[in-house]
Amino acid sequence: MNLSSIWRAMLASGVALACVAAAAGALAQDHGGRAGGFHGQPRFQGHSGFHGHPSFRGHPDFHGRDFGRFAPRESVRWRGGRWSHGWHSGRYAWWWVVDGVWYIYPEPVYPYPTYVPPAVIVQVPPPVPSGLPPASAWYYCDDPQGYFPYVASCDVPWRAIPVQP
To answer: How far are the Cα atoms of 23, 48, 80, 111, 112 from residue 67, in angstroms, in the given order?
Structure first.
């Protein structure tokens, strides 16, 4: 096998791979049918009461509504759903499943992510001492007589007098 035949084989493999990749998107495209997307088209006939009928068993009516207009309880329920990619009711597509109700999307939808603020770390600085610690002794001078700081200098050694509470 020479270098020219290796290049031809690689080129043929690349062309085949490109054809397969281009055809794969056709599986997810809308091919008609009774199901619709989240944006107001009709839903599956098997879910009776889906459009707000009183017989509907506690599921909120997400039909045709923008996520920003959901009530807080509806937002929590909608966020509790899950993505499924595969077959359901004869359709191969992306599905958002909420409380057992399947919503079809012809292609994956990436909603806004849930905002999680960064952790706030507050480092409290140690308390700064206010002034000097309380004195454990007073200093008395015998010449001239008096206590520091009222007597600024002493001609003899200072005497420490314990503080009485």
So the answer is: 32, 23, 13, 10, 10
